[in-house]
Amino acid sequence: MTEILIQKAYKEVKKYRNMVKNDPYRLNYHLMPPVGLLNDPNGLIQFKGVYHVFYQWNPFETAHGAKFWGHYTSEDMVYWREEPIALAPDEWYDQNGCYSGSAVEEDGKLYLFYTGNVKRDDGTRETYQCIAVSENGIYFKKLGPVLKLPEQYTPHFRDPKVWKKGDHWYMVVGAQTLDEKGIVALFHSNDLFHWEEAGTIAGSDMNGLKEFGYMWECPDLIHLNGKDVLLVSPQGLNPDGDFYQNLFQSGYFIGELDYEPLRYQHGSFTELDRGFDFYAPQTFTDENGRTILYAWMGITDEMEAHQPTVENGWVHALTIPRELELQGGKVFQKPVEELKKLRKDQALVKNNEFEAVSAELILDFKKNGPFKITFRNEASLSYDTAKLTLKRRNLKTGEAESRTCKLASVSKLHIFMDHSSLEIFINDGEEVFTARYFPDSENVIVSFEGEAEFTLIKWDLG
């Protein structure tokens, strides 16, 4: 069964290889599926000096279905190798999908934790938190479920993120209570295989938080600058001014987690990204002690089916890797240093118009004021009266749509352009806008207008 399913996936890759490769919207330096649909980044880890990025993958269609774990490895997070499929949905406990999860190293072995998804004929669902192990980080042996569904949650119970503190292992799982409120549950173990629930650490109607979504996905607890930062992707938030404009959100709480007795005191929720396409972020700590984040540069919404890459057999990508730092009660994101390896043909741009498709731009502002940057006549970034706005064309309606955040001033923009993506870091990562956009391949012009003054350095990336 396993080998048949995997070979069937590889046949899809081979069948559509040329079509995918020749798509003008294929990205230059981002991780993408070889065919089909990619979503959440999974199992991020540096194992024996090598970076591993796994991802949710449906090789058979550009829609969500029974997910595999695709797999890339790299020595530098810049140049990547496509590895054999890590996990396939081929067991009774994961037959409808090897859903999202994480990776840890123990005794020189690489362990993957993931959610096994089972959908019954009567429409009900079963969920199992499962484990797989590898000696070399490439070929994995499934060891089956290690945690079944606790009775106080619905089967929307998934996305285990595991870490070690002292001699104990801990796991956070995104969950939905029986009265359909999103929460994060914490479990602990001495051996990775036997887990006990410690309790609920955060969620709707907890810790001073009001109703806050019907499901919380992809929890991740990280330690930054003496604080415990809980990343989570809540579903079911209503738009609130400039906030929560996407169908689902991704953000964080800053607090302090006491393990005994269990208590997580935290502040308010802050969105990680203010653009259109950012969801299900996950982090890992590398051998240099950096906390590095990847996210799905997309979201499950009505736009998916309208992306022009669908007709060429693939959809979605991951963001570039971003290093996280906690500054003044806010998580800042910055592109990892290794991405400088992509730079070539540095230029000091003095014109208000130039060509760029796959490029890195750094704008250092000398004088504040209103401005507008237009990217290939398909998206624009504008600043006026303390508001920064990203606009693009809606793929379904063709009308303009926008995302906005309030900023007292703009001192720096660090922009990563790829053939069909924009990642814009404002004020050294104080805010970030991430978006896919699909300009005419013939239009390669970036232009500026306004009263602001700045120096602009440009590199082609490749």
UniProtKB/TrEMBL annotation:
Pathway: Glycan biosynthesis; sucrose metabolism
GO biological process: sucrose metabolic process
Keyword presence, Disulfide bond: no
Predominant cellular place of this UniProt entry's protein: cytoplasm
Keywords annotated in UniProt: Carbohydrate metabolism, Cytoplasm, Glycosidase, Hydrolase
Catalytic activity: Hydrolysis of terminal non-reducing beta-D-fructofuranoside residues in beta-D-fructofuranosides
Task performed by this protein: Enables the bacterium to metabolize sucrose as a sole carbon source.
Record's protein name: Sucrose-6-phosphate hydrolase
